[in-house]
Amino acid sequence: MDNKIVMKKIISLTLAFSFLVMSITGIMLYIVPKGKIAYWANWQMFGLTKTQYGDIHITSMILFLVVTIWHIYYNWKPLVSYMRDSAKKITLFKKELLIALGLNILFVAGTLSGIQPFQSVLDLNDDIKSYWEKEYGSPPYGHAEESSLKSFSKRIGADTDNAVKLLKDSNIKVDSIEQTLLEISKENGIASKVIYDIIRPKQNSNDEKIDFLGRRTLDELASLNKISLEKSIEFLEKQGFKASSDTKMKEAAEALGVTPYKLYEKLKTL
């Protein structure tokens, strides 16, 4: 068999398989939680993590691009013929070319402008990510899993020695308080969230009624008669954070280097 024909078959099959892999990983990346949630809860699906799906998607995309260039090289004449008119001259105004180009422009422009049905696809993506966040909860602050147990305990207002005791009582091995939550969780085959749930200070019954404290704005908490809006804004601005009634607790807490719960405890006393 002609080597050129064999090569064309290999290229076509490689394109098909790499497209299939990219499609699967693309779907998975569409439904995965946000990075902070995925890392915090050690999210996996079919045995793979968010990072692994992303890595496979990137390498498959590179393979797809390389083989696509190769495919264009071997099929240059047929591709050029698609752009020729009845007089055999190349034209950029051939109907098929304009339709193909128009479809791509429509998808790019429609996505950027937020028109339907493109926006619905993006909204569904947000809804899925919100579902995961409600299911697993959010870390008390960004990249919390990368903090040492000592640093993490301090930031959430927990005693480090007691945290170690609570973890060991739960059969979780801790070699050092300088270990990160991620290292401890990997060594014990658990999620960083589990460590947090074990060592975090217990809230009183009134505080437990406030769902999603980090997402609450100062105005919302004030309307629940939990804090003084005016005094809270004044306090935050004295700390160097420009606050308003729409400021979310998580934003303010991260700026001050504390958890939303610790900030809330402070604002209640004002």
Helix and strand layout, with pairings?
Layout: H1 3-31, H2 35-41, E1 44-45, E2 48-49, H3 50-74, H4 76-81, H5 95-113, H6 118-136, H7 149-155, H8 160-169, H9 181-188, H10 192-199, H11 205-208, H12 218-223, H13 229-238, H14 249-256, H15 260-268
Helix pairs in contact: 1-3, 14-15
Index terms:
Flavinylation-associated cytochrome domain-containing protein, 270 residues, two-stranded antiparallel sheet, single chain, mainly alpha
Structure description:
The protein has 270 residues and is an all-alpha fold. The chain folds into three domains: 3-136, no CATH class; 144-199, no CATH class; 205-268, no CATH class. It is built from 15 helices and two strands. The N and C termini lie far apart (85 Å). InterPro entries: DUF4405 (IPR025517). This is Flavinylation-associated cytochrome domain-containing protein.
How would you summarize what this structure contains?
This protein has 270 residues and is mostly helical. The chain is built from 15 helices and 2 strands.
- What count of structural domains? 3
CA radius of gyration: 27 Å
Average pLDDT confidence is: 88
Number of strands: 2
Question: What's the end-to-end separation, in Å?
Answer: 85 Å
Work out the helix count: 15
Please give the oligomerization state of what you see.
single chain
Please give the largest β-sheet.
Answer: 2 strands, antiparallel
Strand composition percent = under 5%
Sequence stretches where pLDDT stays below 50 over 5 or more residues? none
Q: How would the global form be characterised?
A: elongated
